[in-house]
Amino acid sequence: MSLINSLESKLGHFAIPGLVQIMACFQAAVWLMVLVQREFINFLVLDRDLVLAGQVWRLITWAFIPITFSPIFLLFAVLIMFMIGRSLDSTWGAFRVNLYFFGGMFFMIMATMIFGAVPAGLTLYTGLFLAFATLFPNFEFMLFFILPVKVKYLGMLMGGFLLLDFINRPEMRFAIIASILNYLIAFLPGFIKGMNQKAVVANRRAKFESAKHPEQTHFYKCAACGKTDLDDPKQEFRVAEDGEEYCVGCLPNKPKLTAGSSGLS
Length: 265
Known about the structure:
CATH architecture of the largest domain: Up-down Bundle
Number of domains: 2
Number of strands: 4
Radius of gyration: 33 Å
Order of helices and strands: HHHHHHHEEHHEE
CATH class of the largest domain: Mainly Alpha
Distance between the termini: 76 Å
């Protein structure tokens, strides 16, 4: 039994069903509160110095900060989070989704407390989106309600943006690593195993094809120059009275010919 299965059998009843959907609702609620009192968000952000000063609630409340404060985009973000949450729950089960989500929070908190990285809702939910794109690569989003785009391409695009930010924004590197560390832990071993299996299959296929189709052997060979029909498939060969095969180029120097073995007349 794997470690996760063992933990699930012991702690699975503590899992929160629909965790991602609940977090989406919290983000919408925070958006409304910030709309009424803009300074409210200052009590939620994760600040290392304030946490060390005793404001420990910030270790959790930073995850409630909305991905965006645009009402239209927030609506879409909440709907997408609901869809991702339901899909992950149906595939992994509540315990594994909880483990994945809280693992992402833990890595972000550690990056902040140790390296001073500043987490944001987008970086936390990046791992969720990448997990969804990996598990359901052919799911299609209607981009701008017009263009159908498979989620795997959006995941690749997000990965490209993360790579650019990693290169161009050194101050965000620890936050970026932390944001996808749960994804790497969950999926990288499977990727490596899959690549190894593909390599083994390719090697076996090559051996099978080699055994199935052995190296070609010639059918005709000139007794004078050694040229074969493999050297030039269009070359004509004749059999002389001495019983040997000769290419056309060597005929003048040979005895009278009988009916040939290639291009006979």
